[in-house]
Design goal:
Layout lengths: L11 E3 L6 E3 L3 E2 L5 H14 L3 E3 L7 H11 L7 E6 L6 H15 L9 E4 L6 H16 L6 E4 L3 H6 L11 E5 L7 H10 L2 E5 L11 H10 L3 H11 L3 E2 L6 H8 L8 H8 L16
Helix pairs in contact: 1-2, 1-9, 2-3, 3-4, 7-8
Length: 285
């Protein structure tokens, strides 16, 4: 289902069974480190992004926290996500890992993150359960406003029903772009109101020279990257483009002055290669 309603950088999407709303465009910081990460986050915030996506695995939660402080923007105007990569071995140890991440990002006494995700289902059923119960405790403690999953297929989300107090998860963050559309899990999430976030929406620039994509960009007078971000928005996904180049950070948010018509969307939909099109990973349903 594609949405062609008038879109804006300030757009928000409601999370399921929650009063929390998530900005429809996010800024990714994978492989962004030290002062580069701080400066990139500040450029993004200056450009108008209000949503930053970090993770324990990225080893830059503290830098995101520094950028938040330096930006002087009200904390309530920002939406900050992080992710736990692996369980700690016990409920208490896992909860402690979550609290450490929150402290790195927002070290105020009442600090919090807006969204905390389980980064991967790969730890197995016991680890998935341990991490989810710890995340629910984090919500109860007021240190996370919403919680979700990443790289989860249908069976892993269904499995959660046996132990989760918060179900469905608010978000599922997966790899999404025209070559890897993951239609089955996307349809499942949309059906249950789970917000679908798109990581690697720019395919890490691997498709910049793709002829079909290039033709669409040329007809619109925009870059291939702008087409890919606009495509994700019109698919009702929450794209998380990543860049450390200031001009590109700005360009990636400049996607509201044009629209992809139904023929453009159909053309891009036609590029789908299923799980073969993934550059990171497709989910296992």
């Amino acid at each position: 289902m594609s949405s062609t309603a008038k879109l804006a950088l300030t757009d928000l999407l409601p999370l399921p069974n929650s009063s929390v709303k998530i900005p429809r465009l996010g800024f990714g910081v994978y492989q962004s480190h030290a002062t580069t990460c701080i400066n990139s986050c500040l450029t993004a915030l200056k450009t108008g992004y209000r949503h930053i996506d970090s993770a324990q695995f990225y080893a830059n939660e503290s830098q995101v926290g520094t950028a938040i402080q330096h930006s002087k923007l009200p904390r309530s105007s920002l939406f900050i996500t992080t992710k736990i990569l692996s369980a700690g071995g016990s409920p208490d140890a896992t909860y402690k890992k979550l609290v450490e991440s929150v402290r790195k990002i927002d070290d105020r006494e009442d600090g919090y993150v807006d969204l905390f995700l389980i980064h991967s289902p790969s730890g197995g059923p016991a680890a998935r359960k341990e991490m989810w119960l710890a995340l629910e405790k984090l919500v109860e403690a007021g240190k996370a406003r919403s919680i979700g999953v990443s790289n989860y297929g249908i069976s892993a989300i269904e499995e959660m029903k046996s132990y989760a107090k918060i179900w469905p998860p608010h978000v599922n963050q997966i790899e999404l772009h025209p070559w890897c559309q993951q239609r089955e899990i996307d349809a499942y999430c949309q059906k249950h109101g789970i917000v679908v976030e798109a990581y690697s929406p720019l395919v890490r620039n691997n498709k910049a020279n793709d002829e079909t994509l290039g033709r669409v960009a040329e007809t619109k007078g925009v870059t291939t990257g702008q087409v890919l971000i606009r495509y994700a928005l019109q698919k009702s996904w929450v794209p998380l483009p990543k860049s450390d180049t200031p001009a590109r950070i700005e360009k990636n948010a400049d996607v509201y002055g044009f629209e992809l018509d139904s023929k453009d969307m159909e053309t891009l939909d036609g590029l789908n290669q299923g799980s073969k099109g993934a550059i990171v990973q497709a989910v296992t349903n």
